Give the backbone structure.
Amino acid sequence: MKTTYPVNHHAIAKAAELLRTGRLVAIPTETVYGLGANASDPKAVRRVFDTKGRPKQHPVIVHVADTSPIDVALTGWVSDIPDSARTLAKSFWPGPLTMILRRGPKAHDGVTGGRDTVGVRVPGHPWALALVRAFGDGIAAPSANHFGHVSPTTAKHVRDEFGHHVDMILDGGPCTVGVESTIIDLSGSAPRLLRLGMITKHVLETALGMAVSYEVLAQPAHTSEAPGTLASHYAPAATMTILEKVQLITAVAEAQTAKCYPGILSFEPRPKGWPVERWIVTPEKPENCARHLYASLRALDASSPDRILVESVPGHGLWSAVADRLQRAAAPR
Ligand code: TXA
Ligand code: MG
């Protein structure tokens, strides 16, 4: 049975039709691939949770079109659009930013996990946008991976995760951003960053002209406010450890002596004799590193190493999202 389709206008029309009948469609977005369902259909949304093995109380992001004004696309999903949200929508939508706003009547508990807010985003990928436009309403789409596992950034990753348990996979090529959207909560009295992404805290503060708070929430699995903020998330199958450069070099020397080769993600070049599939060089630029991050972790995992060692990356600016994902991938399960 064929499930993967190269994305084109014909495939988009078919995908919109499938969504209307309660089926699941994997969608390329600029961040990661999403597992999409008609957000207004609680049964379809439940299927997404079942497919992912995701705890029921976790909310999902509703993806909407880039209407002008944005109120049209958000009608029913949110109950009010604060000025801060309008400002950010103007600057960053379509794009890798999710806003948490007060929920409207269309945002049922299956989407919000029972809370009084809802996450909304206008995706920047041209084909994701084409799909939300063709579908004409909100598409609920968490990342298209099993709960807690590494997010997918290619159609093949989605197929590796779900095989034929998804009705259609739209292949739009590799994602260009590579890590999930930044999430900002604008439902309270002050803006709060909930998830780091490639639209940074500093960039948001500049656009809003005010401070944005961010607390690292490191909560044990299944009790979290939001799954992207769980201590352990985005994790490969092999145990992963983050090391400083000096420590990594020592570990590599020891491994070479023992002729036992862990999977390595490092700024250092691959030493002679190290298996090619067990060594990936970290790109120097944070954008490139983010773009390839999940594919690198998946590739190392696929070589079945007994462990994965990752050289630490800087923690500031555009690196902060990469550093965050690495820490969660390495967190105790
Ligand atoms: O880049 C992305 O955001 C991708 C693509 C597919 O758009 N989607 C994605 O979805 O990462 P997911 O479900 O894997 O992560 C969504 C995050 C979760 O951490 C969830 O808890 C949070 O958004 N979230 C959604 N609605 C929320 C709400 N009302 N309050 C707090 N957090 C919310
Ligand atoms: Mg996810």
User: Anything to note?
Assistant: The CA atoms of residues 102 and 117 lie 4 Å apart. DSSP finds eleven helices and 15 strands in the chain. The domain at 239-330 is CATH 3.40.50.11030 (Rossmann fold). The pocket of threonylcarbamoyladenylate (ligand 1) is lined by residues 29, 31-32, 34, 58-61, 96, 98, 100, 112, 115, 117-119, 121, 123, 141-143, 180-181, 183, 194-195, 226-228 (CB under 6 Å).
